[in-house]
Fold this protein.
Amino acid sequence: MQSTATNFGSPRRTAGAAVGDFLRYRLGRWIVLLVTAVFAVIVVAPFAWTVSTSMRLPMESFSVPPQWIVLNPDWSNYARVFERIPFFQQILNSFIVTIAVVIGQLFTASLAGYAFARLEFPGRNLLFWLIMATMMIPLQATIIPVFVIISRMGLANTLWGLIIPALPTAFGTFLMRQYFLGVPKDFEEAAIIDGANQLQVFGRVYLPLVTPALAVLAMLVFNGTWNDFFRPLIFINDPYLFTIPLGLNDLKGYMATGSISVVLAGVTMSLIPVVIVYIFGQRYLIEGIMMGGVKG
Amino acid sequence: MSSEAPTAQHNELHTHRSANPFAWLTENTLQGMARRKALLGYLFLAPTMLGILIFTAGPVVFSFVLSLFRWNVFSPPEWVGAANYARMFADSRALTGFWNSFVFVFFAVALQVALGLLLAMILQARMPTWLRYTYRTSFLLPMLMSGAATAIVLGYMLHKEFGAVNYYLGRLGISPIPWLTEPGWAMVSIILSYLWLATGFTMILFIGGLTNISTEILDAADVDGAQGFTRFWHITLPLVSPTLLFAAVTGVIGGLQVFDLPYIMTRGGPGDSTRTAVMVMYESAFKNMEIGYGSTIAVVLFLIILAVTAGQFGLSKRWVFYQ
């Protein structure tokens, strides 16, 4: 007992004080960590349930208790996804739209961000604040006119209609500008002395130095575009042009009275590309969100 | 002989500036360089400016104009002045939509911010690195799911008779809860699903905010014996208040736009109990083809977002503390 007490630093402490300290510091922390663990399990449970139920026999798919570990996986649900909806085509559509929007936004945002950070021209500050102000405008406030414009351009019910309006980005411009501001100005002077023109200064000197920023923006845009539901719902009505979230909603409708395992197989497959991208880019996704919070 | 002629002409172009209309731009002087940079600036900005003009700034004005017309796309628009606004304030479904959006945003954002801060603080505590990493990844995972997939999966799990949630609650002795089939509970379900989806984002914001607090201040607090709730209330909270403001502002803007969760989980029901303002706008404009009336709801929603955000920034002077 005596030795336990000395562990807390003071030889005059009694055993009672030691127990008190234990309750206050150790036990409290263990309880917090334990409660957090329970909470983490609850948060992850829907993923585990989705994957495990997607492999259950169709007739058992909605029976309780949930079977968390599948001993005899039934893969027929996955095959049936492709029979019910043009799943492969929809995955392809999601890829086309997402990759086009990511590349397009990287292009427009790095150009505009560089202009605001490193090029001097009349009206620069005014234009910058005008663009920043548009970040306040919610998608819903513009969706009806954008749909009218898209229709007049003949782009309603095409993948182009999902891509083109998503290319300009106020947030991306802000993000890229912040990173370009972090690159010292001396680099430009050195490159000019070496005979580079302004275009080369941008493309060969500054752009390679902000690749982390490009990765951050790419991650945020990938996540947002891949998961977008509202815009495709309004712009697209041909199931062969649906993106994945619309396809899943469709699949759920077909399966209203059938097996939910098929729907969950579709959900599981739709998660694979995002999870792969996340494994490689988690760091950038987190950095991007923090950028907004700390510097915004 | 023949190769000399163009060279001579080339030199002449450079020596006599008047002969070259682009000399003001190409001349090898500091002014020439400044002009080239300015031109490049406008060129670099052109795609973004043009895009934002056509697809964001223009449409905001266009929305307002459309809200003054009655238009079903097929026949020409008909000027009705403020009639759409008068109609909206008498339309119980639209008013219910706005009310539902307020209720949703109030609870969703308050809980999202509180929970996000709590989780971020727990992750700051002393623990093995692998445990911290596991916790963080677990809390971030829902962010990868689309709203549509979340609505489908949680909708199944919250099913009254066959859902996993009621099954486990039953094991704890709680009788089945009508999660999606009773008005009050349906709103609770939408809020809980939104929290599942959106809290990871807020948590990262707060991890960023907490990491930014200077350790000197925390050490000073330690020396002064500030602990527990006192320390949280008087030290930590003021120091993360800028992040708190950001999380609240983006939370309200994001929350007022919520659409896919109620659209897929409850279709706005039972009754109109989970029909949000955005859903009413969507149905008016794209289901009933009342473009003008839909635009009216969009404009009012936009003005509400602006007012709430301005209010948050206005009040922030009283409680946000910048280091």
User: Anything to note?
Assistant: Chain A has two domains: 1-47, 86-295. The first helix of chain A runs from residue 2 to 6. Chain A touches chain B through 92 residues (CB under 8 Å).
